[in-house]
Amino acid sequence: MLTDTTSATAAEAARKSLIGLSRAELEAELIDFGESAKAARMRARQLWHWIYHHGLRSFDGMSSIARPMREKLAESYTLTRPAITREQHSNDGTRKWLLRFDDGQEVETVYIPEEDRGAVCISSQVGCSLTCKFCHTGTQRLVRNLGAREIVSQFMVARDSYGEWPSPSGERMLSNIVMMGMGEPLLNFENVAKALRIVMDSEGISISRRRITLSTAGVVPMMERCGSELGVNLAVSLHAVTDELRDEIVPINRKYKIAELIEACRNYPGASNARRITFEYVMLKGVNDSPADAKALVKLIAGIPAKINLIPFNAWPGAPFECSSDEAIERFADIVNRAGYSAPVRQPRGRDILAACGQLKSASQRTPKRVADSPTPVLSPV
Catalytic one among 108, 150, 184, 280? Predict the structure, then answer.
């Protein structure tokens, strides 16, 4: 016999989430639910407003919808977020959540605050297939892609934690999104794009495309599409200036060489002096931090509207590298700056809770066919 708790859990699982549906999908869902086409359009606008502008987690507070309809919706649908398995707070104000999804898989999401704003670092996959040697996530096998609901929900969990609902019209603490968490966003482009369109919708969460940055290790064939369809800022995880070294530390380079990657950056839609491409460059002691490397980097990106983020290597247990010395980083930055490029040294944030760049990893592991059959299938590793 099922206990009350078990029954409640089963009932919850039987309901479909409305989070992550596009506007058109939400209307279609409501038509299937029994609404006329005209009523579905109106109802979808109402739901969109309550879900993404007000951030409601139940139908109870949706005052523009009649109570009988709210009760009927609650019987079939849910607005629940992923479960927070663990929440950690860094000494510097950074906050990290380990989030568990319906199938038990987990990812990490990070909020990095500044004085009057901050960025939510969102994951796109459980694990990663790219195995970059300096990245902790790269030591975890790719389990699966995240769906649009799971991507959008990460930002909603962060907003829940800071109470930043309804969506502020002016200044906001959660002001930016960086697709720099676990996984390679361009290997899950359809779901990432769908999620970001929801996030950018002006009648909901309303984060401007100018405040969203997508980071790629160099999935060259998808870069133009990202720029033309989404128009978000692009960050490229470069980390080396020769194919020989990049083949070793960023293995996707074996498929898409530096010359191809740089050409895709030159052609990235919307790139300009006002919207520069960011090249991310992790500083590895004795590996890629010499003055010769800095000079080669400047030559490589010549003519591209760009800035270079120099990232002191953030160690993790068993890491095979050390961080470059302060002197080496300063020398490298000075060469790049003198060439006319901005080369800020990224201040490490959240190191004490393993929330800094390259440190994210969950305990999720690939499981048998049940997970492989999920609605967000794993793409072939590069």
Answer: 108
